[in-house]
Description:
Elements: E1 5-10, H1 18-31, E2 36-41, H2 43-50, H3 57-71, E3 78-82, H4 88-99, H5 102-106, H6 109-117, H7 126-129, H8 131-140, E4 146-149, H9 154-170, E5 179-182, H10 210-218, H11 239-247, H12 252-260, H13 266-292, H14 297-324
Amino acid sequence: MKKGRILSGMRPTGALHLGNYFGALENWVKLQEEYECYFFVADWHALTTGYEDTSDIKNNINDLVIDWVSAGLDPEKCVIFLQSSIKEHAELHLLFSMTTPLSWLFRCPTYKDQLNQIKDKNITTYGFLGYPCLQAADILIYKANFVPVGEDQLPHLELTREIARRFNNLFEEVLPEPQAILTKAKILPGTDGRKMSKSYGNTIALSDSPEVIKKKVSKMVTDPARIRKDDPGNPEVCTVFAFHKIFNEGEIPRIDEECRKGKIGCVQCKRELAKRMVEYFLPIFERRQEILKKPGIVAEILQNGNEKARKIASGSMEEVKKAMKIDFI
C-alpha cells in the first residue's frame, strides 16, 4: 500500500544539473516506491520570469522529461505530466486569485528576494506576484497529502495551506492541507567554487557524457594558496574536496590527510574524483542513450500522464465548483 499522494514539479528552464539532481530528483526516485507520486513539468511557472522569450520552452520540456526518466523516474510507478495540458490548474488558480488577500502574496519570501535579485527582467507582473495561487492550485487540485520540500521552501507550502484553509472556511471543507516531507539536499558548489547555476556557466549537467565530466572536473577550482604538488593544502576551501564528500565518502579521511601533508597533488585528486563521478552517473547516461533511440517517447509519457492527471483534476474541480455554488451546468 502506498503511504499517500505526493505532488511536485520543476520548471523547464534548461538542462538539469547536479544541484537539481541532489536537491530534488534523487529523492523523487526514492519516493515513487513508497507514495502515489505526481510529478509535473511546470511550463506555466517558467513564464513567471521568462515570459519575454519562450523559444526554448518546447525543447526544455522534452529534455526535462528525458532527464527525469534517465535519473530513474518510472512512468509505470509515477505520473509524469505537463502542467499546461491540464486546464483545470488555470481554472482553480483563477478561483484562488479571487479569494487570496494581496497581503499574503506581498509577504512571500521569494517575491521579495527575486525582485531584488533579478534586475535584467521586468517581473513586476501579476503572474509573478500571483504565482503562489497557481502553485497552490497545482498541489490542491490533486488533493496531495505531501509535498517534498527543503526547509527554505516551507513558507511557500504554508501559504498553500493557508489558501486551502481560507477556501474551506469560506465555502465547504473540500481541500486537504498538504504536509511537508522535509528533504535534506546534498549541497554541491559549481566548478568554480560559487553556487552551481546555469547563469554562472559552472554546472555539471545530468546529461553530460563521461568525457565531458572528466573535462569539467579537470578545470575545477582548488586551493588557490597551493602552488606546487607537495605544498600543504586546505581541503575545506577546495571545490574538488567538496565533490569528494558526495562521491567518494569512504576516502575522505585519506584524501584530507594526504592533501594537508602535500602527499597528493591536485591533478591526481581530480582524476580520482572524475573516476568516481563517471562510475556514479554511467547508468543514468546509458539510460539516456536508450531513451534517445526512441523518437516520440516523451510525447507518449506525457500523453499517458496527462490522461491520469486530468481524471483527478477534473473531479476536484467539480467538487470545488459545487462547494462554491458555481456549478451552473
